[in-house]
């Protein structure tokens, strides 16, 4: 089969690999029909994720059809149309029983990281009963591909961890795919002020279309602008959706007393925490890897047309064009890419 293989920092290639096989009774083999590229894949290629070893097939998102199911799989059968969760869950360990699937003792974020992933024609899904979702009849595959990772990530790590509430003020630092996903799902809770902050004016235009009440480019006046929009207090919820020191430090400057900084970005280097200023501010800082506990809820919202994740898709490619897809996604400032979808 064809697969996009990681060969170390800065090196990848589309090549022929053996098709995966059932290794454990709870496994399923899924034939991919759609996949995508995540910012985390770019972090792997930068060398920020040492758990991903050379030789691993990248990708942790996708939609497909069950090709084969292990003897212990009871909820899925060959021919079933499925959404693949970016998080693998055994459903039985202590962490899974707490709903912390990302910390599953026999799973978590392993696809395209510690085991072969979804940027291929076929993928092996461990613990299939807890790691796949049935695709409703008539569902848009492109839209559902966004439910593998970015929508639950923006919602759980940003909106839910940030405790967005009706009438509150929210500032989202970063209007890439994750920031836009947080912006879309924050509107479930009707915040009064919803500010998108990003240096890319094209992405700010998208954020405004997606429901931001205000859009700002980060500069020396950003903090005062946010305070002017929030009665001088700062934002009740600040969502960090970039993953670099400067963006996190901006969040520290933007948060109101008693507010929450919800970190979503993947950080590859240390970040300064300015407790000399914040020790008395009663703020909360949250971190999280998505657990995908919200995927069924978000799937219902999509099917009810309360959420339109297909709007995030800006570019489409075939699997044989994966190198071009990566180039387009990696140069988003030039190509205006938000999410790319790859047809397999």
Provide an overview of this structure.
It is a single chain. The chain is 28% helix and 23% strand. With 344 residues, the protein is of the alpha/beta class. It folds into two domains: 2-149 and 291-343, Medium-chain alcohol dehydrogenases, catalytic domain (Quinone Oxidoreductase, Chain A, domain 1), CATH 3.90.180; 151-286, NAD(P)-binding Rossmann-like Domain (Rossmann fold, 3-Layer(aba) Sandwich), CATH 3.40.50.720. The radius of gyration is 20 Å and the shape is globular. It starts with a strand and ends with a strand. This is Alcohol dehydrogenase catalytic domain-containing protein. One of its GO terms (molecular function) is zinc ion binding. Residues 10-342 form the Enoyl reductase (ER) domain. It comes from Massilia cellulosiltytica.
- Class of secondary structure makeup: alpha/beta
> Roughly what percent helix?
25-40%
**Assembly state (oligomeric):** single chain
Radius of gyration: 20 Å
> How many domains, as an integer?
2
| Percentage of residues in DSSP E strands | 15-25%
Q: CATH topology of the largest domain, which one?
A: Quinone Oxidoreductase, Chain A, domain 1
Which regions are unreliable across 5 or more consecutive residues at pLDDT < 50?
Answer: none
Tell me the CATH architecture of the largest domain: Alpha-Beta Complex
The whole-number mean of residue pLDDT values reads 97
Q: How many helices in DSSP terms? A: 13
- By CATH reckoning, the class of the largest domain would read Alpha Beta
Pfam family, one: ADH_N
Protein name: Alcohol dehydrogenase catalytic domain-containing protein
Cofactor: Zn(2+)
Family: Belongs to the zinc-containing alcohol dehydrogenase family.
